[in-house]
Amino acid sequence: MEKTILGAFSEKGILLDPRAVDALTKLPNAAECADRIINDGDNRPLVLTEEDVLRYALDGDGGAGTAREAVVQPEGARKQITPVEWRVIVLKDITGNSTCVGNVIDFAKLFNDRYSTIKKMLSKRRDLAGLIPITKVKKLKRDLRFAGIVNDSRTTKNGHTMIELEDETDKIQVLVMKDSRRDGETYLKDEVLGVIGALSKDGEIVMAKDIVRPGIPLRRVMTPNGSDSIVAFVSDIHIGSNTFLEKEWKRFMAWLKGSAVAEDVKYIVMPGDLVDGIGIYPGQEDELEIDDLFDQYSLLAETVKEFPDWVQLVMMPGNHDAVRLAEPQPALSGDIKDLFDSNVRFVGNPCYMEIEGRTILAYHGKSMDDFNSSVRHLNYTNPQEAMKEMLKRRHLAPIYGGKTPLAPEQKDYMVIDRVPDIFVTGHVHVCRIDEYRGVRLINASAWQSQTAFQRMHNQMPDPARVPLVHLGTGECWVEDFTS
Ligand SMILES: [Fe+2]
C-alpha cells in the first residue's frame, strides 16, 4: 500500500519529507488522507511535511481533530441553540517549555535553530536546490546557492547593497547591485536569506543574481469546513488606564449578549495588553486609573465575567502584561490566573492554536516597532504590511538587539514554521483586515483612546472595533462600537 500511495504523490509532482511518509503510513486511513491531499487543488503542498499530513488527517476527522484536543463543556451554558463544545488546540507555545537556564545567556542555540529551520524551508524551493555551506562557496566560484543569517547590511558608496551572511561554517560578503531586481529591499539583521550568485574574480565576495526569502505558498483563503462558529479578536484592552473606553466596551457587551450574530461567537482571542501595566513608558503614572498591577487584573477578571458563558476567552500577554518582556512570553500564571473563571484559557505570546480546524497564529506584535523603524515602506498606520514582511521572512521578530527583547531559548518560537489560516496581531491599536497569499491578516484594534505617548509619536489609534472571522466560511468583517 505504501508504494501505491508514494507513487500517487510522485505522479502529481509532490515531494515527501521522510517524516511525512512515516506519519502517513501510521494513519489508519492513510489512503483516504493521501487522496485528500492529492485532490486539494492549489492548496496541496510542493513538499509534504509531517505537519501537512497531520493537518489533512485532522481535517478528515471533522475539522478540529479528535485525538489531540480537550473538549470542554462550559457549566450552565445559557445558549441552547446548539450544544457548545470549545475546540481550541494549542499547537505551539513557550508556556511550560522554556529552556532559559539560570544566568547562562547563550543565544547560539537560538540562532542555530532559527538558521536550520528556515534553511530547511529555503532548501524546499526549486530555485535553491543544492544549497552548499558558506565554507564551500569560495571554492566553487559560480552557480552558487547557499543560505546564511544576516550579520550586517549596508549601502556602499556607489549605492549597491553589501550584506554579510554567516552560517555555522563561515561568513561571506554578498553584493546586491543597484538597479538589480532586488534593489531597494531591506535585509534585516538576523534574518535568514538564500543567495543565488557567483564569486567575484578576486574570490572575495559573492555577486548576487538573486536573494531569496522562504516566503509562503499561494493558497486559497479558508475553504468552507462546516463549522458554524465565529471567532472574535479583542486586543489591547488596557484595563487600568484612564483612557480605557468604558462606554464603547459596554456597547460591545450589549451587542455580544443581545445580537443574533453574536450567538455564534464562541471564541474571543485577546492578543495581549490585557491591562495597562505599571512603568511601561515614561509618565504612564499620570494616565493610570488603577496604579496597582494586581488590582488591574482583578478588574479585568470582573470585566470578563460579563461575557456570555458560551464564549471561550483565549488570553495572551503583551508588552504591558505581568510576564517577562523577552519574547516568547509565557502565559499569565499564579495568583493572576486564579482570578479568572474556567472559561478563560491562558496562552503564551506568540501562540499557534487550532480552533475548529483553522490554524491561528496570534502574536502581540511588539516587533512592529523594529520593522517600522527598519523597513522604509512600513508604518504604524498599516500594520498588515509589517505582517506580510514577517510572513515573507517566516519570522515574527528577526532583529536581535532592537526594541524587541528576545529570550535565549534553545528553540526559536518566533519562527513561522507553519502557514496559518489567520494571523492576528495587536500592539499598534488600529483595526486592519487584509489577506496575503491566502492568509487572513488581522490587527485587532484597542480599547483605549489616544495616549499622550501615542500623541507624541504621532500614532492615531483606531479603537473600539472588533474583527470577526466565521470559522466555517472564512468570512471576515468588523463590528464598530465607536457610536
Ligand atoms: Fe497596547
Structural class: alpha/beta
Count the strands? Answer: 19
Strand percentage, roughly?
15-25%
Mean pLDDT: 89
Number of helices: 12
Low-pLDDT segments:
61-83
Strand order of the largest sheet: 3-13-14-15-17-16
CATH second-level architecture of the largest domain: 4-Layer Sandwich
**CATH topology call of the largest domain:** Purple Acid Phosphatase, chain A, domain 2
The largest sheet, given as strand count, sense and whether it forms a barrel, is: 6 strands, mixed
- How much is the radius of gyration in Å? 24 Å
What are the bound molecules?
fe (ii) ion
Number of domains: 3
Cα(first) to Cα(last) distance is 62 Å
What form results from the Cα inertia axes? Answer: globular
Broad CATH class of the largest domain: Alpha Beta
Which percent range fits the helix content? 10-25%
Structure description:
This protein has 483 residues and is of the alpha/beta class. The protein folds into 3 domains: 2-60; 91-96 and 218-480, 4-Layer Sandwich (Purple Acid Phosphatase, chain A, domain 2); 126-212, Nucleic acid-binding proteins (OB fold (Dihydrolipoamide Acetyltransferase, E2P)). 24% of the residues lie in helices and 22% in strands. The chain is built from 12 helices and 19 strands. The chain has helices spanning 2-11, 18-26, 30-38, 50-60, 108-123, 134-140, 246-258, 293-304, 334-338, 368-374, 383-393, 452-456; strands at residues 15-16, 47-48, 88-93, 144-155, 161-166, 171-176, 192-199, 205-212, 230-233, 265-271, 312-316, 344-346, 351-355, 358-362, 422-425, 431-436, 439-444, 465-470, 476-480. The strands form 4 sheets. A 6-stranded mixed sheet has the order 3-13-14-15-17-16, with helices on one face. Strand 13 and strand 14 form a beta hairpin. The protein is globular, with a radius of gyration of 24 Å. 42% of the residues are buried. The site of fe (ii) ion (FE2) has 8 residues, from loops.
